[in-house]
Structure formats: C-alpha cells, structure tokens
Amino acid sequence: MDKQHHILIDELVKLLRGGSAHASLKDALKDLPAELRGERPNNLPYSIWQLVEHIRITQWDMLEFSRDPNHQSPKWPDEYWPKEAAPADETAWKNTIQQIDLDLENFINLLKKDDIYQELPHGDGQSILREALQLADHTSYHISEIIIIRRLLNAWK
C-alpha cells in the first residue's frame, strides 16, 4: 500500500470511530441513566434504545453485506427497528453496545485488508469505501438524534 492509501484508511478509521468533528457513540451514551433509555420525549417516534439497536442492526447488515456474498439483509424498515422502547434488561443493553464495538472493529479490519475501491461482486456498485462512508454517515446521524433526546430529557452535559 502506498502512503496516500494508508492516510485514507487512517482517516476512514477515525471517521468510523467518531469523536473528531462530533461526539462518538460512546460520548453520546456516557453516563446515560438506565431509566432514560426507553423514554420518548415530546412524542418522538423512537427512544435512545431504539436508536442504539437500530445502529447495531444497520452496522451488522453493512458488515455482513461487505464480507458475505450470500448475506440476506433484514426487511426494511420493520427488521431494522426494535419494537420495544427500552432494552429488556442491563444485559441486553450491554450486549448491544458490545456488538456495535465488535462489528465496527470487524468492518475496520475489512478496510485494512481489502481493496476498498473494488466493487463488491454481489452488489450494485457498492465498494468497501462506499460502505464505510455510508456507515459513518448513518451512525453519526443517529448519534446526533441520541444527543437531542438527551437534551430534551435534561440528561446531556
């Protein structure tokens, strides 16, 4: 790999992990009281739990699509959003956060070993680069929603 390619990969990794120009997911969830995870303030259609679980499902789908030509995506939109407003328990919450972290690291590993420009043979124009940019964009969009909900709940710094 040439120097420019290394620079691009490093910048993509920073973008995916967040925190450079905006809050990371970890920042957005830090010190969130457990009892607020399922709150839907001001008649919003989703809770922080639903956003976090949606991030997990979508990220998993993009990862699997990128590495498995036989992957079947969930049905949009029903299977990308949890019905429950709150996690079943602390274990469910922790498992979701851990899965987000694990899947993100697995996606970052794809960036480091695959030709990020090559179109995926099972897609319709997608590449690892395109999926990385979409993943970062999608996650940062929903992180901002989490922060807005926290502000509405008076639970943000």
Automatic annotation (TrEMBL):
SUPFAM superfamilies to which the protein is assigned, alphabetical: DinB/YfiT-like putative metalloenzymes
Matching InterPro entries: DinB-like, DinB/YfiT-like
Coiled coil spans: none
All residue ranges annotated as the DinB-like domain in the record: 23-146
Name this polypeptide is given: DinB family protein
